[in-house]
Design brief:
Layout: H1 2-23, H2 30-33, H3 38-70
């Protein structure tokens, strides 16, 4: 679940950043609720990347534990 939420956050951060920097518009869901600055979009992207990596590492760790316990 962390991986999915992280991926969505990464998309929102990237879309918001691209929209503000290159097209002078605030894109994404976050723009509906508040007007975040460019740095906030980068922060959301970084937080989403961290969540996605954490989710994938945890998934691999669980698979490794199940393989090792069954042998």
């Amino acid at each position: 679940m962390r991986g999915i939420i992280g991926f969505i956050a990464m998309l929102q951060g990237a879309v918001g950043f691209v929209g503000q920097v290159f097209f002078d518009k605030n894109w994404g869901i976050m723009a509906r609720f508040f007007d975040p600055p460019v740095a906030a979009h980068l922060g959301v992207f970084a937080a989403g990347a961290a969540l996605a990596v954490w989710g994938e590492l945890d998934k691999k760790r669980k698979q490794k534990r199940l393989k090792g316990g069954a042998a």
